[in-house]
């Protein structure tokens, strides 16, 4: 909690005291320790082998009792004995009963409990101390304006902007929902000395975003101690995480690790460069491709059906580029809605709802279009499918070229003293990776466009060839 330039409630604990906390609360270690890699202390702590570890011959490297898992279910259980936590979760309604909402509020509560001037709020639990071992993460939401400017033309820039807007909405939701609770009004929102700041909300978001894992049988959660393991993809992944039949968290060895070697897990091998920086604040050293990119896509202002299309759309408004073989491919549900119009068979109607209101419904040639993802299947069965494909490809090619221009028009500057090394390096690498992928996508889309233009269906539609003559009826 931030007040008058001081940090309260976020007092950090040295990772050297983590083994004592772990032993006291029943966390078991087998052949590993938590700490910085020798020579790489500035990268923070990780999981390190204390002896040679042999795959297939080791018991779990870490066992975390299920009671320590920071999950929605456990937080709900904690709220049964912590009236203050329950008050806040209930006040937040649906958001307070999501995993993300529950975990973030729980961590804010732990910071509140740890404030030295607050004696009458919350119930202490083992995770109150554990959260103090977690480092602050340098994610893009903590970049300065000057550092964010380096992301111009990348897909990370709009992602950070959208995230900041989302965090502001969540923070305002929490403030509005809890300001009428007496103790929240006194300690969190008091105009003169309230402790809860937007930076606190950014901090717990970064902790959750960079450490949440999807555990089999548990779902999304933060898993104490195991969440110190760093990421490595493919064959470099050293261990797997899962839950046992009792719900305890396990770290299981996957391959041999030498003594003093790092034991890594995977945060998701399919994550692209943008998401790796956005959620974890790093790129693997051997990253050679952006892997996947999402570009937004708009409906032209001169489309007379634009308001209706936006009203009925259920798909993400954009398209995904991804590596495929040696090239780049794409996928999108939204582009098909952009590409077709009334003369093709798209129709909109107003229908009355059960409560007496009205809403817009969409149809494709009398087929109900209540989900945008259905549209591609409808179009595939239409005689003009190749025409619709051509329209989609042209739309995507224009958008890819616009993104390339934005990237190349920005003059990436040398690093200045006011810009930190890591954001500068990551921005530079991301720009290179996304530029390479966009160039490949441009070439792939050009090939697709050329192939479609050779189609007899397209050529006939464009009037480049005559319709087949009707056969003579000699009867």
From TrEMBL:
Keyword list, A-Z: Coiled coil
The UniProt record lists the keyword tRNA processing: no
InterPro entries reported in the protein's UniProt record: SET_dom_sf, SETD3_SETD6_MTase
GO MF term (any one): protein-lysine N-methyltransferase activity
Coiled coil: 427-455
Signal peptide start-end: none
Coiled coil among keywords: yes
CC terms in the record's Gene Ontology section: nucleus
Designated name of the protein: SET domain-containing protein
Source organism: Westerdykella ornata
